[in-house]
Design brief:
mainly beta, three-stranded antiparallel β-sheet
């Protein structure tokens, strides 16, 4: 019942380019694990540089792709400028899994979202 690492990116049909840190991500990609068929949804916490959860986003369950990854889209505009990380967890009706590993640091900054990157 654990999710794997999170990759933050943009949803565009192109090759991912390495860059650090991601600015204004619009999606998170994560692996749900072997019990994906039992998952009813996901929760993603946005965590500030002090370690406080500033926002929790809920997403409905999705069918993972062939690699076992799920992509969820979100808007970081409500979050203040600064550095953040994310964790994600599976939801099984009223039961929640442990948090995933923490994502790489990303930034909420003025301007357009960054190009995607491979994590």
């Amino acid at each position: 019942m654990r999710t794997a690492a999170i990759a933050l990116c943009l949803l565009v049909p192109s090759l991912a380019l390495a860059q650090s840190p991601v600015k204004n991500p619009s999606a998170a990609v994560f692996t749900v694990g072997p019990d994906a068929a039992q998952v009813t949804g996901y929760e993603l916490d946005i965590i500030d540089s002090q370690g406080a959860v500033v926002q929790t986003l809920s997403f409905p369950a999705q069918t993972p792709n062939a690699a076992g990854d799920v992509t969820v889209t979100f808007n970081v505009q409500p979050v203040a400028f600064g550095s953040y990380t994310c964790v994600v967890r599976n939801v099984y009706n009223a039961i929640k899994s442990a948090n995933s590993n923490t994502s790489d640091v990303w930034e909420r900054a003025p301007g357009q979202p960054s190009k995607p990157r491979v994590q």
